[in-house]
Amino acid sequence: MGKKVLLIGQGGREHALAWKIAQSPELETLYAAPGNPGMAELCECISIEVNDLDKLLQFALAEKIDLTVVGPEVPLMEGIVDRFYENGLTIFGPTASAARLEGSKVFTKNLFKKYSIPTAKYDIFSDMELAREHIKTYTDLEKPVVIKADGLAAGKGVVVAADYLEASQAIDSIMKDKEFGAAGDQVVIEECLFGQEVSFFAISDGKSFVPLVSAQDHKQVFDNDEGPNTGGMGAYCNPPIYTPELHQLVLDTIIAPVIEAMAAEGTPYRGVLYAGLMITEDGPKVLEFNARFGDPETQAIMPLIKSDILPLLEAAAQGRLENYQVEIDTGTCICVVLASGGYPGSYEKDKEIQGIDKVDPDTLIFHAGTVKRAGAYYTSGGRVLAVVSRGENIKKAIDKVYKEVRKINFDNMHYRTDIGSKALI
Ligand code: AMP
Ligand code: GLY
Known about the structure:
Elements: E1 3-9, H1 12-21, E2 27-34, E3 44-45, H2 53-62, E4 67-70, H3 73-77, H4 80-86, E5 91-92, H5 100-103, H6 105-114, E6 122-125, H7 128-139, E7 145-149, E8 158-161, H8 164-176, E9 187-191, E10 196-205, E11 209-217, E12 220-222, E13 226-229, E14 234-237, H9 244-264, E15 270-280, E16 283-290, H10 297-301, H11 309-317, E17 332-339, E18 364-367, E19 370-373, E20 376-379, E21 383-391, H12 394-405
Parallel strand pairs: 1-2, 1-4, 2-3, 4-5
Antiparallel strand pairs: 6-9, 7-8, 7-9, 10-11, 10-15, 11-14, 12-13, 14-17, 15-16, 17-21, 18-21, 19-20
Helix pairs in contact: 7-8
This protein binds adenosine monophosphate and glycine.
Glycine (GLY) binds at residues 217, 232, 290, 294-295, 297.
């Protein structure tokens, strides 16, 4: 009998996961909670919010769901995996204590130190005055310094400060004004690393892991990495800087040791390991770990995974990844995010989207912030759509994706025109 899968989330990342899971010959029914209009073409969408753990659990029990896949971080931190395990359900993702790898920078930095995993030098403070004193040791030497709130801060808890004033303001807003609440009870103050940033994704079952793909995100809203940070304006896979030698180094010095360390600490890590890396002159160092798939990286990664993803996620959830092989496409894939006017600040909504039907069928459109009314799509979020094209090389993928992007339009739509261009230099 086929499998019933519940996918939790409603963004472009989850649409990409749904697209991939829906291709599985093992699938009977794919449910999405709550899903989005793009996902509705592949899934049965049920109106339960991602943080309503009680209702999600009730639904999974009532429908005898074989596998639940969690997209966003919030339900993970709130212990959805723990709750599902306690009720005998199979769920892909880390327990709440393992999800501290994303949820607590203090926990993670201390883990790195204890197990000699390469990362920026750091100190931890719960006292604001001591934190302020400490930043002088950096700024006296005219070096930038990085201030990080300990907990989740919707991607806004990290400040790379150029001078004492900026660093001190960051400490004030995190520790005094409590901009991120209890997430700012402690701060990590660390040295600034220089180099190119690359993300690497692997899937772990707590003991073994399967490497997936590397990708480069584009966080700033404008071309040439200018303007404020966003959730991510585009991504492409297999950046040339991530050479086979570097890949081996990342597996040997970061991914495998982190999985061993988490197991040794009594919190084995099952789920996606999303390593945010800085490729420095001294080799790869970890900036952060996330406990979930990246958005928009997932939209570019899923089309490169040739193997069926359903048995992979199930094997990870059940601790059966030893010797598991996954086939990955050798080409590349690129994702360009189309955003609403005003994003990442307050943005416009309810603009009719035109041209989706004109896009070439071999380019994928993943929905992130849309609603459907009377057969037409309208904008409802900051990041609206992701346009995704494969190519045998990055140049071809870039040319293809922008040709398709230009067919889509809505009022004040904006996007970066340089996704992937670092790979061409
Ligand atoms: P994080 O949430 O820790 O990954 O930080 C968010 C972003 O801040 C990263 O993607 C980097 O661009 C930047 N960042 C974080 N830590 C450092 C560091 N030690 N040196 C330079 N940039 C950093
Ligand atoms: N693309 C950044 C993230 O998913 O956190």
